[in-house]
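Appendix C: a fully annotated inverse folding record. The material below is reproduced so that readers can follow the format used throughout the book. The structure is listed first as tokens, followed by the designed sequence.
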């Protein structure tokens, strides 16, 4: 049996199918992304009888209900949404949702004399040759005879008969052919997911999460649209609280729901530490509630799949939507989210750029929600989540195959009566002395300033409330919050003038330190021996020349917290390599002490 059938329909039938709910346009998170000019071009192609491609639909598998009857699934439009939305906007006069969640019409104008289409603009509205909005012509009861008489009186260069023929051609657009590829409803969910991703890979890259959102949004019976909107609006409000009023004005039905009351706190909240996408939210909610890591399994469960019998059952659909909704609401809960952010801050994560692995953050929040569900003591939750987050960054645990690791870890955290026992087991296997003595120092041998290991060092400095290099009153945290930059302990220009011309040499992260700009400007291109001599003189009572440190104890403490060896006082260019080796050792020691204190 073929995986699909290819048929033809027309625009009129397609609009009718959508109005009747036979084909459902999934309200995927992305608002209408086509530019109005692309809608214009689509109408022009239809008018000239050019092919406009295929749409692809898939009917949900038939699910067996408790009473023995079969529920026939609704067809989902899995490819062609933008084209269909464009047709509904231009011909049926439907509003589209913009990226800031305001609604607007896309009005396509038509010039019958030149037979050209254009996006409506102020000049067109003043020009009597144009029909400013073609959707008026397609409305039932449109007075064709009266329109032709009026138009030809204002534009005598075209006759009534000529205009009539052109209007007939325009309205016949509704009978233009469009191809429909119908995927067999017997297809395995994983196959349909793969098809969905592949056919969209040439445009906006879509994923398992996109397909899951499609599945969610078309299931009216189990509050799918409500769940989809809660996910969607949360992820956009966390980034742009200003869209709150647009949501209230343009989606009044949703604004009255209990779900909306649970996310409205975002309008007064700002964070740049963890801004989840809808893919992140779905992954966390799914992994936490279903104890599974593969998002493709969510699509299967929402379709009612029984993994043991390979049948599709109505009760599995109902249970899956209920669990997912609960997971989403736990994710967006104000107390949960804000407390998770506080845990991140308590580990030294004060800015999103400090944790480049979104999957590490996602699993940390998944773990937090699971531990709360298991009624683990609050202080234990804080400690476990902090340590696991930092450990997963140290080992790059979720960088290779995150879904399989999510699946592995969530099942073991669930099965351990003492979750900290699983953390200790992981530490024994992956954070042994060999890791700290060999692997981490090797990982620090890089020039990439966004390295997770350098970021962990910075997090340890924030955690310890360390001062910036050669500063007495300005902390590393304050510099990061004010978008301060890292500078070089061995100045870059000094190294370049002494033969270190390769970026990978002078930009080693073991040569980086957060430093006040005024301190960096005072150091200029001097060797460490030169500028540290000036520091020694001001510690000995002479006027300040570099920074504010004026006593020996403060200087020693500052070098210690910035992992700078005391041998820096005598170092010149030929000491640079030994400096890097020693500083890496000190950075490793600091990160290890920081981890043990979490």
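Designed amino acids, in order:
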């Amino acid at each position: 049996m073929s995986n699909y059938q290819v048929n033809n329909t027309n625009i009129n039938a397609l609009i009718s199918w959508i109005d009747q709910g036979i084909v459902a346009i999934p309200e995927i998170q992305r608002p209408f992304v086509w530019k109005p000019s692309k809608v214009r071009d689509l109408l022009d192609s239809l008018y000239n009888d050019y092919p406009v491609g295929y749409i692809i639909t898939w009917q949900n598998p038939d699910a067996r209900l408790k009473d023995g009857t079969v529920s026939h699934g609704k067809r989902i439009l899995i490819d062609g949404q933008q084209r269909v939305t464009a047709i509904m906007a231009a011909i049926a006069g439907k509003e589209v949702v913009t990226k800031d969640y305001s609604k607007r019409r896309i009005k396509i104008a038509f010039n019958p004399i030149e037979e050209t289409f254009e996006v409506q603009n102020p000049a067109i509205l003043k020009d009597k040759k144009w029909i400013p909005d073609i959707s008026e012509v397609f409305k039932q009861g449109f007075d064709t005879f009266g329109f032709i008489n009026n138009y030809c009186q204002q534009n005598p260069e075209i006759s009534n008969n000529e205009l009539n023929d052109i209007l007939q051609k325009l309205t016949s657009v509704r009978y233009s052919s469009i191809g429909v590829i119908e995927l067999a409803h017997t297809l395995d969910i994983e196959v349909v997911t793969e098809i969905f991703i592949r056919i969209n890979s040439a445009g906006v890259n879509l994923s398992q999460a996109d397909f899951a959102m499609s599945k969610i949004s078309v299931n009216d019976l189990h509050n799918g649209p409500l769940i989809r909107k809660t996910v969607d609006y949360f992820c956009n409000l966390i980034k742009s609280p200003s869209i709150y009023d647009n949501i209230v004005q343009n989606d009044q039905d949703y604004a009255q729901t209990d779900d909306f009351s649970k996310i409205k706190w975002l309008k007064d909240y700002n964070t740049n530490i963890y801004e989840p996408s809808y893919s992140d939210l779905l992954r966390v909610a799914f992994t936490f509630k279903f104890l599974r890591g593969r998002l493709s399994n969510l699509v299967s469960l929402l379709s009612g799949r029984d993994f043991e019998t390979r049948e599709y059952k109505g009760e599995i659909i109902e249970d899956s939507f209920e669990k997912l909704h609960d997971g989403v609401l736990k994710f967006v809960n104000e107390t949960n989210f804000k407390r998770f952010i506080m845990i991140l801050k308590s580990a030294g994560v004060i800015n999103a750029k400090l944790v480049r692995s979104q999957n590490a953050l996602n699993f940390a929040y998944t773990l937090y929600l699971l531990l709360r569900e298991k009624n683990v003591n609050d202080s234990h939750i804080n400690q476990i989540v902090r340590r696991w987050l930092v450990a997963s960054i140290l080992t790059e645990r979720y960088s290779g195959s995150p879904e399989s690791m999510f699946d592995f870890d969530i099942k073991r955290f669930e099965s351990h009566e003492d979750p900290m026992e699983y953390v200790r087991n992981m530490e024994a296997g992956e954070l042994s002395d060999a890791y700290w003595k060999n692997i981490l120092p090797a990982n620090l041998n890089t020039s990439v300033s966004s390295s997770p290991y350098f970021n962990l060092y910075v997090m340890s400095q924030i955690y310890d409330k360390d001062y910036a290099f050669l500063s007495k009153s300005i902390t590393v945290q304050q510099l990061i919050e004010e978008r301060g930059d890292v500078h070089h302990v061995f100045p870059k220009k000094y190294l370049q003038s002494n033969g270190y011309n390769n970026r990978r040499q002078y930009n080693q992260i073991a040569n980086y330190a957060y430093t006040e700009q005024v301190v960096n400007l005072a150091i200029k291109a001097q060797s460490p021996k030169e500028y540290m001599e000036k520091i020694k003189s001001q510690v000995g009572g002479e006027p300040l020349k570099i920074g504010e440190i004026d006593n020996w104890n403060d200087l020693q403490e500052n070098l210690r917290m910035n992992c700078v060896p005391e041998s820096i006082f005598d170092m010149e260019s030929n000491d640079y390599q030994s400096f890097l080796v020693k500083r890496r050792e000190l950075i490793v020691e600091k990160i290890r002490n920081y981890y043990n204190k979490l």
